Amino acid sequence: MKENNKAENSFNLKVFHRLTMTEYKLEVTTGDMNDSRTNDQIHITLFGTEGQSERTEFDNLGDFSTGTTGTYTLSTNLSLEKLLLIKVEKDPFCYLPEDEWYLSKIVVTTPEGEAILFPCYRWISRGELVELRGGRALKGFEEDHPVLIEHRKKELILKKSFYRWKIFAEGLPHINHFNNVSELPAEIRFSQSKLNEVKYLKMKTGIELKLKGLLGSAEKWESIEDMKNIFWWKKTTMSEYVSEHWKEDDFYGFQFLNGLNSKVIKRCSELPPNFPVTEEMVKPFLEEGSSLQEEVKKGNIFLSDHKKMDGIPPRAYNGEPLHVTAGLCLLYLNPENKLMPIAIQLHQQPSEQNPIFLPSDSETDWLLAKMFIRNADSMDHQAVQHLMKTHLLTEVYNVAALRSFSVIHPLYKLLFPHFHCTMSINIGARTTLLGPDGVLTISSLGCDGLTELMRRALSETTYSSLCLPEDITARGLESIPNFYYRDDGLKLWDIINSFVKAVVEYYYPSDSEVRKDNELQEWISEIFTHGFLGNKASGFPESFHTVEEVIKFITMVIFTVTVQHAAVNNGQFDYYSWVPNISLLLHEPPPTTKGQSSMETILEALPNVGDTVHFAALFCLLSETYSDMVPMGSYPDERFQEPAPNQMIKEFQAELSNLSEAISTRNMQLEIPYSYMDPTQIENSIAI
Ligand code: FE2
Question: Do the Cβ atoms of 203 and 585 come closer than 8 Å?
Answer without folding.
Answer: no
